[in-house]
Write a structure and sequence with these properties.
- This protein is an all-alpha fold.
- It has one domain (10-103).
- It is 81% helix and 0% strand.
- It is elongated.
């Protein structure tokens, strides 16, 4: 699975680099950053939760901490990708790398 996840992440980064002059590149960077932020926030919240999965604590992690992390990741991606250069591809690469590390 890690090979295919890395291949998909590499393809997304390559797509963000090839589309660096378009708005679609910024959308790709924002989407990948939001997914990485959501996953990171839920995994951090899950470290502090004990007990049965799908309990009230998990509901708070998935519906509370996750969206906050996604918004923070998206805000960071928007701030870092204001220029129309390769920064969008770098943000996409960093977010995809962080996501792969979290999902391993």
């Amino acid at each position: 699975m890690s090979f295919w996840a890395g291949a998909v992440a590499g393809g997304v980064v390559l797509g963000a680099w090839l589309l660096r002059e378009t708005v679609l590149s910024r959308a790709i960077a924002g989407l990948v950053s939001a997914v990485a932020g959501y996953t990171a926030a839920v995994s951090v919240a899950a470290r502090f939760l004990h007990g049965v999965p799908f309990s009230a604590g998990w509901l708070v992690a998935v519906l509370g901490a996750g969206p906050v992390g996604a918004l923070l990741g998206l805000a960071l991606a928007i701030k870092l990708t204001e220029a129309q250069d390769g920064s969008r591809a770098f943000v996409t690469a960093a977010s995809a790398g962080a996501l792969l590390l979290l999902l391993r």
